[in-house]
Write a structure and sequence with these properties.
The complex is a heterodimer of chains A (560) and B (604). Chain A is an alpha+beta fold and 560 residues long. Chain A folds into three domains: 96 residues, Roll (Ubiquitin-like (UB roll)); 142 residues, Alpha-Beta Plaits, CATH 3.30.70; 257 residues, Rossmann fold (3-Layer(aba) Sandwich), CATH 3.40.50. Chain A contains 15 helices and 24 strands. In chain A, strand 7 and strand 8 form a beta hairpin. In chain A, helix 2 packs across helix 3, helix 7 packs across helix 13 and helix 8 runs parallel beside helix 13. The longest helix of chain A is centred in the middle third of the chain and has 17 residues. Chain A starts with a strand and ends in a 17-residue tail after the last strand. Chain B folds into five domains: 60 residues, Arc Repressor Mutant, subunit A; 82 residues, Glutaredoxin; 220 residues, Rossmann fold, CATH 3.40.50; 91 residues, Roll (Ubiquitin-like (UB roll)); 88 residues, de novo design (two linked rop proteins) (Up-down Bundle), CATH 1.20.1440.230. Chain B is built from 23 helices and 16 strands. The chains are: A alpha+beta (560), B alpha/beta (604). At the A-B interface, helix 2 and strand 9 of A face helix 4, helix 19, helix 20 and helix 21 of B.
């Protein structure tokens, strides 16, 4: 337990962990202190002045002990001026007043100042609906403006690097973006030129933001000054449905919010998680969502006779049955089988693949495709799969950097493997060329987009992307995190756990009524997951503490 | 790329060495001055070169080019005119001078004549209010200009090039004055050299102080009850005592020579005419507080001042008075000059520190105070020029002598700068509390001009609340002025008569603070400009009845809500003027009111 501090908040006795500033402390007690410039993950700038509050401390007598008043309570000496909550740590015995007439007048004053030169162009502003100016104007704004002067005119539609557009008239000079680029993105490239009311946020020409984290400044901009070129003018935010998700870009597993409307994803933003990604995510991961609504998405299962060139669309159930039948035949014929899984699949999917391989096909030939890149020292992991650990724990993948794909490829070439199930990978690009795949008696594919392998396949069953289904990823640090379905595409598309579950059932290897049944079976079967419940994962994930679990040297190969 | 040249680069390297090795950034304003002086302006190529040299990003330099008004990213004329537009100059005819210059040169503000010879701009207070109106042409200051004289000046420059007028100095002492700091310069023959300073007893306090323990020097200054002369009147010894002596970090002394509170021009005299008095005060103070390095932050417009100080420092160093081993005592102290860029907010001590570190002069949030975390994150004391110039006298003659001057709570003398509507403006030195504001104006300065009526007096620089004509029987000391609802401030006394409109004066003052607001925090950034705009509208006959209440409320919403005291500095005068001259404002704000006379003020 952290050390606690007792203080009085608007007349209420409360306690918070030592070291909290007034804004965070009040938030923990359910009181919002409005603010613009303060961000809990950036240094304090103290410039917006919206968080001014009254601060009092027990008055000390000559003996350095608190003076006690006639009512038996400590006498409180209030600071003569209002104090900014962002820069004031709460301390024992402090009195904080956030709702007095004096505080209210200060907030109303600041609110009015922030709006006098603001263009008030909410009808065409992307921030509308999630704008702190709008929100606090409701609480502290005036119904009618007293400002009848000509507003300051400043540069608009300024490109701030390739991904961001700046509107200086909307900017309230809070400097969050300046601090983020310096302190977090480590490209100290933004600043203000001119002075006073003419201050303008800018970059030196040719030195605009150009990191993999630039778009975070759009998120933390409390107003509509910074907009993302990717999202600008595409949707009104109040129409968007937000789904708590996990970025599938790498083994960090940044917590995200995926915004969609009518089953179309419009943007992806980081969701705060102190143990994973703080408040940030990389631009590459953020912008990697368009494949969800790719017009080429597989929406119907197909089967192709061995000698036919064209595939025939069939119902999902028919395709599953065809796949089951082909795998059963191969097994009965004593032919070798193999499974190519994906470390981008959910743990539950990988678990069902493992059951298929180990319990039904009785093959050891299972592998996932590894993707090693360069770690950036911040959020981007060298492991570009989100669930390498899930693949390892389930036994489908062997982890990095070894891969048995060349052996599987050789076995197919030698005719030892005659049936192959490819799950969510374009294996033609990852070690088994089309010419080798063409030798197979049976090639079954479960995937979301068409590729060279789906063309060669005998059965293709459409799958779902990360934002369409339930499931978990285990990130590179052994934290299990949950996906949630946010969009549903039209078509005969089913979550892969159902496809695999039905396949296993058809092969006489169990029955999974729903996702929960899969999860239960998984945690029962896999020692590293014992005792884990789906609920216990929560929205912030669950550290599996793999290093403390017996027999789990699994993390030894884990890349940084 | 720019061609730097070995000579300039050597000079640059010498300047960089004036700052700690890991704080090269501090040299950035210097480098900008050097390049602009050589090349006339600062281009993106200069910015890139300076950034690379100081291991900065270009934005860090670019921010400064566009923050400090002395720097240009566009070409100026061969003769660049900077006309002071602030309150005393405007009262004394700056608008008329500007109109004539525009007509004469055929250019508007920020424009260059077709032949490239002249460019024209207005500037905020040039700290020569007693000789208003003034303008600078390049590095030279021209004083007491009428429109005709301004026109003749242009002709003369065209014919003969730029003249170098002598630096004006305080006139002979009035019988009621007691000149201590101004004593040497009262002799018109005094040139301020080391030899002359020594001949008048200079540098006798330094060895005395060096022979004492630092703590004893601090005690002597404590005992003198010397209060800071920059504006706040904080006890100097107390400030020194607050310094964190246990941090293990170097301690810095910074001399605030960024004199820029409108109405104030005393530090200019002390720097230009008795530089060694200041240096001796700094050397003693450094010994007292344990500083081995000191900086003089001098406002960029003091073009002669910094060179005079530089020469004086060279003399002092050559004479062993400054350097690694002062007078063989083993005590070392280096003083370096740091030239500002023309920014009022650098007078605020943390804004000054940020500027000294090579950044935009954004005042810091306090606490921590500079005494704990100051320049380069080290304990720092910032003292005003006048405060430091008192130190040699206190050491020489003792705290008891000092306390014998002035009145309780306001010991010593005070330099008072009188400007505006008086017959004999100027810089004077009086024992504090020994004469009233009325006596100063009527007896010493000859009262308001013939046929005019006194309307009010700003007693301590424009940020201090104005006193009406019937409130000026107040003794000139810290506590009496505070009791009268105002403050002694910087000692800049501006006298207002009935020839200028109170609304126009208030607009002029509001315009100053709007121009000088650094832009960091919301109430000042937005509120100062709003006040200026309301006042500008009222002044030009476009007021509305409700404007005066709105104006007051805007000022009230700035007051007490900002990071630094510039908020109050902007709010107080407006509140005081509106409160005390309400009828003037109400009358001017009537929709039918006639615009104030005279040409329209240059408007940002």
């Amino acid at each position: 337990m952290p050390e606690m501090v007792n203080f009085t908040l608007d007349g209420r006795e409360v306690s918070v962990p030592r070291g909290s500033n007034v804004i965070d402390a009040a938030k923990q007690c359910g009181v919002e202190v409005p603010h613009y410039c303060y961000h809990q993950r950036l240094t304090v700038a103290g410039n917006c002045r919206m968080c001014l509050v009254e601060i009092g401390m027990p008055k000390l007598g000559p003996d350095r002990k608190p003076e006690v008043g006639p009512d038996g309570k400590p006498v409180i000496a209030f600071a003569p001026k209002l104090v900014i909550g962002c820069n004031q740590a709460v301390s024992e015995g402090m009195v904080v007043n956030t709702v007095t007439p004096r505080v209210r007048k200060a907030r109303e004053g600041v609110m009015e100042f922030l709006l006098i030169n603001h263009p008030l162009d909410c009808p065409i502003c992307d921030q509308a609906g999630e704008c702190r100016l709008q929100e606090f104007a409701v609480d502290y704004g005036r119904a009618a403006s007293r400002f009848v002067e000509i507003k300051e005119h400043k540069p608009k539609r300024v490109p701030l690097g390739p991904k961001i557009t700046l509107d200086n008239e909307r900017c309230i000079a809070c400097s969050r973006c300046v601090r983020f680029m310096k302190e977090v993105a480590k490209q100290d490239c933004l600043g203000f030129v001119e002075r006073g009311g003419r201050s303008v946020l800018t970059a030196f020409p040719g030195h605009e933001p150009n990191t993999n984290y630039d778009l975070n400044i759009v998120d933390i901009c409390p107003v509509g000054a910074l907009t993302s070129n990717d999202f600008r003018f595409r949707q009104r935010v109040w129409f968007l449905k937000e789904t708590r998700s996990i970025c599938p870009h790498c083994a960090t597993g940044c917590n995200t919010l995926v915004s969609s409307r009518e089953n179309v994803v419009y943007r992806q933003q980081p969701r705060d998680n102190a143990d994973v990604n703080q408040s940030w995510m990389c631009d590459q991961g953020r912008l990697n969502y368009r494949f969800v609504n790719d017009s080429a998405r597989l929406t119907t299962a197909t089967v192709r006779a061995a000698n036919a060139t064209d595939a025939t669309p069939v119902a999902w159930s028919e395709a599953v049955a065809a796949m089951a039948s082909a795998l059963r035949n191969a097994q009965h014929a004593g032919q070798g089988t193999a499974i190519i899984g994906s470390a981008r699949a959910t743990t539950e999917e990988l678990f069902l693949l493992r059951r298929l391989g180990k319990d039904v096909l009785r093959t050891d030939r299972m592998e996932t495709v590894s993707r090693a890149g360069k770690a950036d020292g911040f959020l981007v992991s060298a492991d570009r799969n989100p669930n390498t650990l899930g693949a390892y724990i389930t036994g489908v993948g062997h982890g990095l950097p070894e891969s048995t794909i060349p052996e599987i490829c050789a076995a197919i070439a030698r005719g030892e493997v005659r049936a192959l199930l490819v799950f969510g990978e374009n294996i033609a690009k990852h070690g088994i060329p089309e010419a080798i795949l063409a030798k197979l008696d049976f090639l079954g594919v479960i995937d979301v987009l068409p590729n060279a392998v789906t063309k060669l396949a005998h059965v293709v069953i459409p799958g779902m992307t990360f934002i369409e289904k339930q499931g978990t990823f285990i990130n590179g640090k052994g934290r299990m995190q949950r996906l949630k379905p946010g969009v549903r595409l039209a078509g005969d598309i089913h979550p892969e756990w159902r496809t695999l579950g039905t396949l296993l059932q058809a092969l006489g290897a169990g029955e999974y009524a729903d996702f929960d049944a899969v999860f239960q079976d998984m945690v029962r079967t896999l020692p590293p997951l014992q005792g884990v419940t789906y609920a216990s994962i929560g929205d912030q994930g669950l550290d599996l503490k793999l290093a403390e679990r017996p027999g789990e040297e699994a993390v030894a190969w884990n890349l940084p | 790329m720019i061609n730097v040249g070995t000579k300039l680069e050597a000079e640059i390297d010498r300047i960089i060495a004036q700052y700690p090795a890991d704080r090269k950034r501090a040299a950035v304003l210097w480098l900008m001055h050097l390049f602009q002086e050589r090349d006339g302006m600062l281009t993106p190529a200069h910015v890139t070169w300076i950034a690379a040299k100081l291991e900065l990003q270009p934005i860090h330099v670019w921010e400064l080019v566009r923050f400090y008004p002395l720097f240009r990213d566009k070409p100026a004329g061969k003769y660049h005119i900077k006309l002071c537009r602030t309150v005393s100059c405007e009262m004394c005819g700056a608008k008329e001078v500007l109109a004539r210059l525009q007509k004469k040169l055929g250019v508007g503000l920020e424009e260059v004549t077709a032949d490239g010879q002249f460019s024209l701009s207005t500037f905020e207070c040039l700290a020569s209010c007693g000789s208003a109106p003034v303008l600078m042409v390049n590095d030279e200051l021209f004083e007491r200009l009428t429109p005709d004289e301004a026109e003749r000046l242009i002709d003369r420059i065209r014919a003969e090039g730029l003249p170098t007028p002598p630096l004006s100095r305080p006139g002979p002492a009035h019988p009621r004055e007691n000149r201590v700091l101004l004593a040497n310069m009262s002799d018109p023959a005094y040139g301020g050299t080391l030899a002359e300073y020594r001949a008048r007893g200079g540098y006798t306090a330094l060895p005395k102080a060096l022979a004492m323990k630092p703590a004893d020097v601090v005690e002597e200054v404590m005992a003198s009850q010397l209060r800071g002369r920059g504006g706040a009147g904080f006890p100097c010894g107390q400030k020194w005592k607050f310094l964190d002596q246990k941090s293990g970090k170097p301690i810095y002394l910074v001399c605030n020579a960024d004199e820029s509170e409108p109405g104030t021009f005393k530090d200019r005299q002390l720097i230009q005419h008795d530089p060694h008095q200041l240096l001796e005060g700094m050397l003693i103070s450094c010994h007292a507080v344990g500083a081995r390095t000191a900086y003089i932050y001098i406002r960029g417009e003091f073009t002669h001042g910094w060179q005079i100080l530089q020469r004086a420092m060279d003399e002092a160093r050559a004479a062993g008075l400054m350097g690694p081993d002062i007078l063989g005592t083993g005590v070392g102290c280096e003083i370096f000059l740091h030239r500002g860029g023309g920014t009022y907010i650098c007078g605020e001590e943390t804004g000054l520190i940020e500027s000294l570190e090579g950044k935009r002069a954004y005042p810091r949030i306090k606490p921590p105070f500079p005494a704990v975390v100051g320049l380069f994150n080290c304990p720092t004391v910032v003292n005003n020029v006048e405060t430091l110039s008192n130190i040699p006298h206190i050491m020489n003659r003792g705290s008891a002598w000092f306390k014998g001057l002035g009145v309780a709570g306001s010991m010593g003398t005070r330099l008072l700068c009188v400007s505006g509507a008086v017959r004999r403006p100027g810089c004077f030195e009086f024992e504090m509390g020994k004469l009233t504001l009325r006596e100063l104006i009527d007896d010493v300065c000859g009262g308001v001009p013939e046929g005019r009526t006194l309307r009010g007096v700003i007693p301590g620089g424009t940020s201090m609340p104005v006193l009406t004509a019937d409130q000026i029987d107040v003794p000139l000391d810290f506590d009496s002025l505070r009791k009268a609802g105002t403050m002694a401030g910087s000692g800049g006394i501006i006298v207002l008569d009935d020839s200028s409109s109170v609304v126009s004066l208030t607009r002029n003052i509001a315009q100053f603070y709007a121009h000088e607001s650094c832009g960091q925090c919301t109430p000042c950034r937005e509120g100062t400009g709003w006040m200026e705009k309301i006042l500008h509208r009222i002044e030009h006959g476009k007021g509305r009845a409700q404007d005066v209440d709105t104006l007051y409320d805007v000022a009230d919403n700035i007051d007490g809500t900002t990071i630094c005291p510039l908020g109050e500095a902007a709010a107080w005068p407006v509140k005081a003027f509106v409160k005390k001259y309400r009828a003037d404002f109400d009358r001017a704000a009537q929709p039918s009111a006639a615009p104030a006379p005279g040409p329209e003020a240059p408007h940002a």
